[in-house]
Design goal:
Two copies of one chain form a homodimer. Chain A is α+β, with helices and mostly antiparallel strands. Chain A contains five helices and five strands; from the N terminus they run H-H-H-E-E-E-E-H-E-H. Strand 5 of chain A pairs antiparallel with strand 5 of chain B.
Chain lengths: 138, 138
DNA sequence: TGTTTTCTGCCAATAATTAGCATGTGGGAA
DNA sequence: TTCCCACATGCTAATTATTGGCAGAAAACA
């Protein structure tokens, strides 16, 4: 598994497992909370360093949403987030959407070699668009 | 111009002008540097507050690139950045690319009402992909 | 102009992230 | 299997980026 150039330590194994098993994205802090149960002495700085190692190895992707600290999640090279300005929730669209966006980009990227595609959409989710009509800013 | 709900002050006018005239994106700090010539007493916190006001009014868009502090630039609702892992430079693809990506998304966004589309691509620019072949990580 | 609302300067605080250093450990070589 | 060394970790402290509180100043609108 991490015979991809990353030295395996208990810390990294746990951190990696949290990301893979949940499939969700977490801040460094949230990862820390979840791993502390199993490894009580774990330091937050170690979490940051481990996430960075996994990221460099291409195992973890990092997203910076409009608010709050960075989010980390396992793997995906194509990475769309829909952030609702009304309720603040984050949605993941159908993977097909990401694939099509990738194509649109790759077709004419002027020689740029695409490795990771991060898409962050601000707007209103179906629910918030329906009711509160406009006000927004959560 | 800012009769769009934003009270006009000299500070805001200068900040806005820096963004519009250059057409580039800057960090709050960079904006500060550029406006300090004209307004020596200007505080960085004021720059942050002004940018936030302009952003809320829809005049300024904010991007969080993979590294470094937030970037602000005038206007664009659709907003693709290509960040080269080799040299760190940031490229803006042809607007047409952004438009097609928007379409790909909008066609199947599950009722999500899109307001701003931020696209951040990591990879290698033509130049870096050509020579150093792979190493990367600037 | 007068009044009200809102910015702004100034200063301090918080949040997020990184750095330094001594010790410990994973994992290939012997 | 054991040894060795580069690299990871714990701990602590520093740095960056960003936000908050408050009193005086200055927009907008009547």
């Amino acid at each position: 598994m991490q015979e991809r150039g990353v030295r395996v330590t208990p810390q990294r194994a746990h951190i990696w497992r949290v990301l893979v098993e949940s499939g969700e994205h977490f801040t460094a802090d949230e990862v820390w909370e979840r791993v502390k149960n199993a490894l009580p002495g774990l330091e937050l700085s170690t979490v940051y360093r481990s996430l960075e190692a996994l990221r460099t190895a291409g195992l973890v992707a990092e997203s910076r949403l409009p608010e709050g600290p960075r989010m980390f999640e396992a793997r995906p090279r194509i990475h769309p987030h829909l952030v609702c300005d009304g309720c603040g929730r984050i949605f993941h669209p159908d993977p097909e959407v990401g694939r099509r966006m990738f194509e649109a980009l790759d077709a004419d990227s002027g020689g740029f070699e695409v490795r990771e595609l991060h898409v962050m959409v601000r707007g209103l989710c179906a629910e918030c668009a329906g009711q509160g009509k406009d006000k927004a800013e959560s």
